[in-house]
Amino acid sequence: MGIDQRREKEKQIRRNDILEAAEHVFFTKGYNQATMDDVAKAAEFSKRTVYVYFNSKEQIYFEIMIRGYRLMIGLLKQKIQNAGAVTAIESLKQMGDVFYSFSRQHPEYFKAIIEYETAEIDFESGVTDEARDECYALGEEMTEYLVGLLGQGMDEGEIRKDLDVVKTALVLWSCVIGVLNTAHKKEKYIRHMHSTTPDELVSAAFTLMLESIRN
Question: Which domain of life is it from (predicted)?
């Protein structure tokens, strides 16, 4: 390994160490309460060193959100691979199961993704073009998979052929985000006021979504 390669490797290690420390700080203290001083202390670097690798707290949080996106997509791919050949409707059900499981098992990553999906943090001044482009690519990967399943379902005769697959994919994703966010944030309310569990709410919502596109 040459000197330049070694330096680049060391740089990536330090960068990852900072991200790991920041993730711990943000997830335990809360993003709004956390500071770059907190991140630097947890990473055992000076704040100046942290700013060498990340130009803002917003950039760090955005890249942590990307980690969550990667994890969620990885879980989805694993589910698909293990399932083998199934119908489009079954695959859509599996996607819903993965998204809900992810939201329960990784609530902090899910929270970061929700904040990205429901706001325009990708246009924060501290977010780099590279991070924004990677996030868009991950989002498009999800959309393209949904579009493919909708097309497959039409070919199988299970999904309505009058639907615009791209718009339908975007609507389904938006609905999933909204339902999972409600199940996550309003659990006590729906239990107390409607005697409904998050599991029941999500199951009913996913069934309704699928019925709305069935042939």
Answer: Bacteria
